[in-house]
Amino acid sequence: MIRVLVTDDEPHIRAGIRMILSSADDIDVVAEAANGREAVELARTRRVDVVLLDIQMPVMDGLTALAELHRTVPDARVLILTTFGEQQNVLRALTGGSAGFLLKDSAPAELMRAVRAAAAGDAYLSPGATRHVVDSLASGQSAHLAEQARRRLETLTGRELEVLALLGEGLSNADAGQRIHMSEATVKTYVSRILAKLDCENRVQAALLARDAGLGT
Q1: CA distance 115 to 112
Q2: Most exposed among 64, 131, 145, 158, judged by the fewest C-beta atoms under 10 Å?
C-alpha cells in the first residue's frame, strides 16, 4: 500500500482528495495536515510514502515545508498541489526536490497516477502545470537575454544609446535624425560606430539587441 499524507489548509479540498485516493486499492490516506508544520510532524511519525503539499498555507507554507521534509524525511516523496498563476513557486519547488506537481482540480485518474509515479520514484508533472512551467522558463530565458543585452550596451555613450533606441523602433537614418534633430549623415556615423562597438553585422542585429535590452520601452 502507498501511504499518503494530504496537506491543505482548506478542509473541503483535503476531503475531496481523500475520497478520490481512498477509492484506489493500492493507496491509503493515513493522515491529513492543515499547514506545513503539521505535515512535517506527521510525515516524521506516520511513515508516509507520498506527501501531497499545498503551497499557500498558514503557519508554514509549502515551500518551507518541502525544504524541511527533504531534510528530515528524505524518503518521503512530495507532490506539490498548485493552482494556475503560481509558475515561480513551481520552479522553486522543482529545484527544492519535489517529485512533481498537480493542479488542485486535476481529474481523479491523474491524481492517482501522480501518487503512484511518485511512490515508484518517478517525477510527475501535470499537463496543466507543464504549460505554466514552460511559460515561466521562457520568461526566465527572456530575462537572461535582456541582462546579456544590457551588458553589451554598457560600452555605448548616452547619445549612442539614444540612436540605438531609434534603431530598435525601426526608424531609418533620416527619420531618426528628424526625431533627435541630427543630420542623416551624422546618424549614419553614429550607426556605424554603434555596430562596431556591439560587434553587430548590420542595423537589424543592433535593433534586435536594443529590443532585447528593453531600450526605449
Answers
A1: 5
A2: 158
